[in-house]
Task: inverse folding
């Protein structure tokens, strides 16, 4: 049993213009959350000078974070959900489609792997841990 | 060359009371950022009912996120910094000291591993990529 899945992706070769301003980044991120079925609680974006953006979305299902290095044509993206994993995939696919990276370093982790399963006490002498 | 380090840690066996309310979680997280030298831009906390908290801190150096499952005595923690890695370690150590988990599943990733180093053109026929 786990509590969620966590997509960790570094996107290379992204057009610098797409990731230089919070205005551009905000529209991609907010739309990725909206179309994927993730549940936004709040979001915040920070514009670095002269260029570069950090964006973070607090989700009912965990979070999405997005940090850009336009000078390296790089985005580092995390999508972590304790809800339907398919929603994270949808958000990821939307962002990749919008940013068209030339390569992606992608990992998908599970979180909370070591929590105990529900303990079902069948009888005082018979405990099943599934 | 990389752009930063990312601590990914699942903390097990944490006292349920410590991680049930945003009030408790907020004090640990905000202090971890303050004492470690990380630079907070903003933070947001969400209280789940009847218990459980999500907290996220947008940092000038990237972000810190914290999600709790009191019913599983579990915290999933991420500290990602493009600044001094030591600051992330200090924040991590502070949180662990405060929460006293019985076990930790800990990973430290580097992000943006594949960005090109500065290209030094020595002569038209001699390009060094370091």
Result:
């Amino acid at each position: 049993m786990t509590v969620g899945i966590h997509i960790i992706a570094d996107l290379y070769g992204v057009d610098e213009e797409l990731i230089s301003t919070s205005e551009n980044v905000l529209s991609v991120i907010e739309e990725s959350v909206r179309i994927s079925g993730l549940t936004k609680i709040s979001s915040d974006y920070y514009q670095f000078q002269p260029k570069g953006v950090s964006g973070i979305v607090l989700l009912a299902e965990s979070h999405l974070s997005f940090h850009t290095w336009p000078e390296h044509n790089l985005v580092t993206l995390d999508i972590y959900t304790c809800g339907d994993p398919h929603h994270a995939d949808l958000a990821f696919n939307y962002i990749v489609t919008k940013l068209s990276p030339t390569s992606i370093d992608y990992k998908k982790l599970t979180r909370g792997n070591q929590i105990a399963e529900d303990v079902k006490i069948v009888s005082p002498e018979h405990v099943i841990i599934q």
